[in-house]
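Handoff note, outgoing to incoming analyst
You'll be picking up this chain. Sequence as last confirmed:
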Amino acid sequence: MQATRKLNDDIIWVGADDRRLHLFENLYPLPHGVSYNAYLIKDEKTVLLDTVDESAISQLIENVEHVLNGRKLDYIIVNHMEPDHCKGIKRILELYPDCKMVGNVTTFKFFDQLFDTTLSDERKVVVKEGDILDLGSHKLRFIFAPMVHWPEVMLTYDEKDKVLFSADAFGTFGTLDGNIFDDEIDFNSSWLTDARRYYTNIVGKYGPQTQAVLKKAANLDIAMIAPLHGPVWRNKLGMFVEKYDIWSSYRVEDPGSVVIIYGSMYGNTQEMCEALACMLGDMGLKKIKVYDVSETEKSYLIAECFRCEHLVFAAPTYNNGLYPKMKEFIEDMKMLNLQNRKVTVLGNGTWAPQSGKCMKEMLSEMKNMDISSVDITVKSRLKDSEAGFLKDIANDIVSRLGK
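Most recent structure output, in case you need it:
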C-alpha cells in the first residue's frame, strides 16, 4: 500500500519511516526512529530525488509506482551517496531501464565502490556546480556542499517552486508519522533535542563547510527546505536555519547554561558534583544539567555541550590516567570540533591523582576552550570541611557567566 504526501501538485514525498532501527550508523540511539525522505517531481520529465535505506526499499518502490501511475521515470538525482539514502538506487535503475542517474564525479566514484554493477555512460548525467536540469516548467539547479557531511554531497534547488532539496543538511532523527511538515508538529518540544543531537554528532565536525553552504543558501529565494531526514520546512524556515548557523559556528545556543558531566567509580565524584549543582542553584542559576558519563549515551552529552555555555568535567584517576569513559567522551568532543566554551575541571584520586591534569591537557588541545584556573583535585572524597574550595568554584562559574 502506498504512503505518500504532496509538497504541492508537482512534488511528492515518497519516502518511508523506520521504527525498527535502534542505532543510526550503528552508533547513535534512535528512541523515536528515523525517516528516509525521497521526493518525486512530475513535469514533462519525471525525476526521483534520492532513495532510501535497504529496509525501506519496498515502500519506496510502491510509492514511486503509485505516483508515476504508469509513466516512465526519466532521472534519479543522487544528492548524497551514503547507504541510508542510496541503497535503493540499483533497484530503481533496474525497474526503470530508461532512467538516467544524475550526480557529480565523486557521486559516481562512490557508486562504483558501493555497488557490484556497471552503469553505462549513456545512463550517467555528470553535473557541476550551477548546472541546471530542465524538466519542463521545473528547472533544477545543483549546488555543491562538500563535507556536509560527505565529499560528494550536493543540494538541488527547484527554481520554479523555490524548494531546496538539502540532502543531510537540516535533517533530524525521528519518524514523521504522517505529519511531514514543520507546521504540523510541535518542533521545539518534540523534535529540537533530536535535531540538535543529529547535527552535532553527524555534521558537527564540519562547521566551516556548513557555514559555506549557509552562505550559498542565503542567495536563494527559498520557500521550502526538503531534507533527507525529518520534517519538510515550509513555515519557520528562519528558526531552523538560525539553529544551524549557531551550531555550525560553535556559538553558545543557550546563554547562562551549565552542564556538569562526571564519571564516578564509587559515588565520591558524583557527590562532589551534586553539591556543586546545589551551590549553583542557591546562587540563582536556573539552567543546570548534571549527567553521569557512564550512564548517558555520549551523543546526548555531545549535544548538551554544543548547547551550553559553561562545561564542568569531573572524573577520578584510573590506572594513573583518566577514567576511561570520560577520556572517550572528551576525545569524541575533540573529534567533533567543539570550541568556544568556558570549562571547569574537577579531579579526584586516592594516592596519585592525575585526572584533572589529564582533562586539562586534552581540553587545551581544542580550539578556544577557556579553562578556568579555579579548580580542585580531591583525595578520595571531598569533606564538609573542604566545602569552601567547592564554593570558590561555584563563585567562579557564576562570575564567568556574568551573573
